[in-house]
Amino acid sequence: MSEAARSLLQRWGASFRKGTDFDSWGQLVEAIDEYQILARHLQKEAQSQHNNSEFTEDQKKTIAKIATCLELRSAALQSTQSQEAFKLEDLKKLEPSKYLAS
């Protein structure tokens, strides 16, 4: 893995942990903001052309799925309905820096 890819993973991991920290502390507005910002960055990378990306096509599919999970968690935090939500514990299992490092 290139140094640029490692740097991206570190930044994404820091942003992910910041969002989940806000989420676990009950700071929902801040968590939603962090999740949405990170999801946009991940989607941008997932949609980038292969020659402009530090990641393989399979990794980009995984990045897109993580972005979707962040969007689902953000939507769950904004929802006032008592539907089955995308839980914080589920989201924490998907930390990008851990999942994509291989």
UniProtKB/TrEMBL annotation:
Report the InterPro entries cross-referenced here: AIDA_N, AIDA_N_sf
Q: Which residues cross the membrane?
A: none
Q: Which domain of life is it from?
A: Eukaryota
Q: Where is the Axin interactor dorsalization-associated protein N-terminal domain?
A: 9-96
Q: What is this protein called?
A: Axin interactor dorsalization-associated protein N-terminal domain-containing protein
Organism field: Sphenodon punctatus (Tuatara)
